[in-house]
Write a structure and sequence with these properties.
The chain is α/β, with parallel strands linked by helices and 339 residues long. 41% of the residues lie in helices and 19% in strands. The site of 1,4-dihydronicotinamide adenine dinucleotide (NAI) has 34 residues, from helix 5. Homodimer.
């Protein structure tokens, strides 16, 4: 489906995965049999840069792996049962984690904390033990808290490297480019919107003023667009009416993030993805993790870009984001350090 020659000339998943120098890259997906895990694993199977896929879940991963393994691309696929996490993680260079429960209508992402915090903590312990040098992308919500939890566990185990841990916020930029494209009648592939902050409601801060197509959106249209980007997840939760949250668009976004990361690890320069990482930008305000455009390199995080020039509206959005984000981060840190 994604041919190598087409992939080389493309920078987006729409035409195929962007590709760079060939290397061996084993990717583990934890939560691989779930709503996100399955389509994301399928997309990773079609990525020419992924040479091995290790699919782990507490239930159902061997079946998903058997199914995906028939797709005729070169990578090897293996599925692992609940007690096989050691084998699943050993040798993994990139680990993407969508394990955990999704929202139902009426819930916030923070309402998932009680269930997902301990899932993420346990998976962090396993990663610390079996793949301490891996580059890890966290999808499990609430991302604003699960990333700090993961970091604290790695710190306790003495293996935390802030350059290797990422909260996956790619879906926010995917949505922003699609929604802005819709109102402008433009192809989303030509629209790049920087989205900063965190990954829930008011902590999601789109910087429309920094895009050619977004800077003249104003008044009610601006408010509606910002609201749709901030609450795009709720739109899907409502439409799915109790059966879950975004899975297919997240599978796409997660595979895109993994592809960018691997291209950077392979030495491609100029790979930039927005992602929620340990960041100095607002640390003095109690916000030790923050999403901005991050330049990725062979070491993982190469350069954390500042937010850049903000409009008056965006300054207000950022002001509203920071205290919420600080609370979410503190909650995660306290959970992991007290546990
Ligand atoms: N970062 C983001 O932008 C987004 C994050 N999410 C979050 O992703 C998470 C997963 O969502 P879905 O795939 O829709 O849920 P799902 O319920 O369909 O799948 C989750 C999978 O995780 C597995 N699982 C549970 N505990 C596990 C453990 N300890 N180890 C390995 N696997 C485990 C389950 O068996 C299940 O197969 C949710 O927390 C959701 O809120 C969802 C959409 C976007
Ligand atoms: O809304 C949710 O719960 C899932 C999510 O993070 C998203 O779709 O952005």
């Amino acid at each position: 489906m994604f041919s190598r020659s087409v992939a080389r000339s493309s920078s987006t998943l729409v035409r195929g995965f962007a590709s760079s120098a060939r290397s061996n890259r084993k990717v583990a997906v934890l939560g691989a049999a779930g709503g996100i895990g399955q389509p994301m694993s399928l997309l990773l199977k079609t990525d020419p840069l992924v040479t091995g896929l290790s699919l782990y879940d507490i239930r159902g991963a061997p079946g998903v792996a058997a199914d995906i393994s028939h797709v005729n691309t070169h990578s090897e696929v293996k599925g692992y049962e609940k007690d096989d996490i050691k084998a699943a993680l050993t040798g993994a260079e990139v680990v993407i984690i969508p394990a955990g429960v999704p929202r139902k209508p009426g819930m916030t992402r923070d309402d998932l904390f009680n269930t997902n915090a301990s899932i993420v903590r346990d998976l962090a312990e396993a990663c610390a033990e079996y793949c301490p040098k891996a580059y890890i992308g966290i999808i499990s919500n609430p991302v604003n808290s699960t990333v700090p939890i993961f970091a604290e566990v790695l710190k306790k185990k003495g293996v935390f490297d802030p350059k290797r841990l990422f909260g996956v916020t790619t879906l926010d930029v995917v949505r922003a480019s699609r929604f802005l494209g819709e109102i402008k009648g433009a192809d989303p592939k030509d629209i790049k919107v920087t989205v900063v902050g965190g990954h829930s409601g008011a902590t999601i801060v789109p910087l429309l003023s920094q895009t050619a197509q977004g800077k003249d959106v104003s008044g009610e249209a601006y408010k509606a667009l910002v609201n749709r980007i901030q609450f795009g997840g709720d739109e899907v939760v409502k439409a799915k009416a109790g059966t879950g949250s975004a899975t297919l668009s997240m599978g796409y976004a997660g595979a895109r993030f993994a592809n960018s990361l691997i291209r950077a690890l392979n030495g491609e320069s100029g790979v930039v993805e927005p992602t929620f990482v340990k960041s100095p930008l607002y640390e003095s305000e109690g916000v030790a993790y923050f999403a901005t455009n991050v330049e990725l390199g062979p070491e993982g995080v190469k350069k954390i870009n500042p937010v850049g020039e903000l409009s008056a509206e965006e300054q207000e959005l950022l002001k509203a984001c920071l205290p919420d984000l600080a609370k979410n981060i503190k909650k995660g840190v306290e959970f992991a350090t007290q546990a």
